[in-house]
Amino acid sequence: MGWKGTLRSINAEMNRQSRAADKRHREHLKQAERDEASATVQNQADYLEEIVSLHNECRTDMDWDDIANEPEPQSPGNNKPLTMFAQNKLENFTPNLIDKIPKVKAWRKKMLEKKLEKEKQQDEINHTQNIAIYEREKLEWDKTQRLSSTIKTDKDTLLEVFQEYLNVKDLPIGEDVKLTISDEMEVDVYLKVSPIEEIIPDEEYSLRQSGMLSTKRMAKGKALDLYQDHVCSALLRIAREVLGVIPMNVVRANAVMNAVNTKTGHLEDQIILSAIIPKATLETLNLNNVDPSNSFENFIHNMKFQKTKGFNTVEKANFPEN
Fold this sequence. Notes:
By secondary structure, this protein is an alpha+beta fold.
């Protein structure tokens, strides 16, 4: 083969390798797109599952009878254990054969004396830290003892406990939670829910047979059903949390939405779901398996929901007469 033929062969091989590299690059981009599409679909599925299963967990379960019987924290003594150990080593220092050399003996003893001073300082640091821990524990104990003494009979105490110990700010359950207590010690919790457009996505994601992302507008009926389950799940969750914080046997849980009052024409917070939720009934339910919307059949409740329009306003549910 002449030099021209050799050059043509080299050029052909270079072109082949270039095409192969381009193909690998295109396949890499397609796989990256498929991976991103799969993650997008999974992320949306996880989110939609989360917003309708809020009721599955409860962070707080405070037993105020147990709290009332908790022993008072004891002030820590300063036994100076590190100092005592170092002092003992210094006092019982017995030089070995090498240590009997005067300079070595003096050096060893000086090191033990420095260690003793260092351990004295560390004991003081540890004692100061222990005192600080004790003082925090004592303040918390004093507060819980004060609260436990009146929590079952004083509504101001209930409200204080609600403000202090309810921990739901980071949960996607709504915009605000409020508690009111009547003179008869009937507890109302109000959950202001976020509007549907802030909770339910406009688009629904799925994977094509090729593994690429497919996007379509979420059907209105599906969006409304998801929103109903979300509101019911969120209200169950807040009822569980409130009943876990305050020692009451029942609460009236109310989901509130900012909507047009047809009487005045103005936007107002209005109740869209109200339920009497006894703690004993909640404890009989397998909440991991219930449908959030259907679960309210277990409670006295008011809810008007249309498959094509969503929630309508309702009156508060009535506490049963004793």
